[in-house]
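protein under study:
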Amino acid sequence: MYSGRVSAGQSRFPSPAQDYEQEELDLNKHMIANPPATFFYRVGNSYDSMIDVGILPNALLVVDRSITPKSSHIVLAEVDKELVVKRLYKWKGVIELRSENKEKNYPPITFKDGEELIVFGVVTFNVNALK
């Protein structure tokens, strides 16, 4: 697999050195900072609660367990023995997992005193197929 730069706009004069700029592409080098703590998860095919941030059904998520989850991170968390991907919100003792789908406006998952939120890891990349 090789990589190179492409223009997303209009280019009138291609670089004469363009044919020599390719190098081998290692996705692990670009997407994985800590291999022993990195896991891949596939989003369910009917899952649409995070589409506003580009996480589409069947997306492939790269999850890093070594990152300490902070408010506003997109996390993989266990809720009622099911893994879900949501945006973590923490403010003044309020902890929620929020969806990112304005059209469907899913309610946040809230946690009360004594309830435990288990965050499996922080989502660092999202890969969607273009079909």
Summary: The first helix runs from residue 27 to 31. Helices lie at 27-31.
